[in-house]
Amino acid sequence: MKPSVFLAIPLGKAFQDQLSGKLTLIADPAQRHEAEAILLAGASVTSVKEMDEMPKLRIIACIGSGYEGIDVAEATRRGIKVTNTVGANAAAVADLAVALLLASIRHVATGDRLMRAGLWRGDGAARLLFSPGLTGRKIGIVGLGAIGEKIAARLAAFETEIGYYGRNKRNASPYRYFETPLALATWADALVLAHRADESNRHLVNAELIEALGPRGHIVNITRGSAIDEEALVAALKSGKLAGAGLDVFEGEPDHIRTDLRELPNVVLTPHLGGASVEALQSMLNAAIANLDAFFAGRPLPAPVTA
Question: Which H, E and C letters describe 108-137, residue by residue?
Answer without folding.
Answer: HHHHHHHHHCCCCCCHHHHHHCCCCCCCCC
